[in-house]
Design goal:
Layout: H1 2-28, E1 37-39, E2 43-45, H2 48-79, H3 85-118
Antiparallel strand pairs: 1-2
Length: 122
């Protein structure tokens, strides 16, 4: 019983923290269209296809700049390798991984865009 009483203030603080984090959602709910949900990250989301599209757009906004930086870093590693086969191999592998991740995200965006426009979800 003593352990439960000691943990009770922690539980109250956790519920208070959860309420404070999610309380803005209740205010934003009044400004949405019927059937839509307002989120902090994606704005107003109206359906699963809209949510998936916004997730892919966010992934593109994150992965494209990061891939660019990784490609630049791989180039710098390659240039400064001075013939060291280990560093050349590391630079090539880094470049390949960056290009593959960039291609996957852009391909995912293209596939989702195609599916949403040609076969909308009812």
């Amino acid at each position: 019983m003593k352990i439960l009483l000691k943990k009770q203030p922690i539980i109250k603080h956790i519920f208070l923290l959860i309420f404070l984090i999610f309380s803005p959602l209740f205010c934003w709910a009044a400004n949405t269209k019927p059937g839509c949900v307002q989120t902090q990250v994606f704005g107003q989301v109206c359906g699963i296809e809209d949510l998936i599209g916004k997730i892919i757009d966010l992934a593109v906004k994150i992965v494209v700049p990061l891939s660019t930086l990784v490609i630049i870093a791989a180039g710098i590693i390659y240039i400064t390798s001075t013939g060291n086969p280990e560093r050349i191999s590391r630079a090539k592998n880094t470049l390949i991984l960056a290009l593959v991740s960039l291609a996957l995200v852009l391909l995912a965006k293209a596939i989702i865009s195609y599916l949403v426009t040609t076969a909308p979800i009812p």
